[in-house]
Write a structure and sequence with these properties.
Blueprint: H1 2-18, H2 25-43
Length: 47
């Protein structure tokens, strides 16, 4: 599962660079927050 997240992060960075953006520490932190919030959301999912 963690490998999937890393691949998603790599794809996001690649896409962002293609748009002409620069991968900064701030962008890296934002993707970390997104990943963390996804984990929290999974804790509250009703099965």
């Amino acid at each position: 599962m963690q490998l999937k997240r890393k691949n998603e992060k790599k794809r996001l960075f690649k896409f962002y660079k293609e748009l002409g953006g620069e991968v900064t520490e701030e962008l890296s932190e934002i993707t970390g927050y997104i990943e963390h919030s996804r984990r929290i959301d999974k804790l509250f999912v009703d099965d």
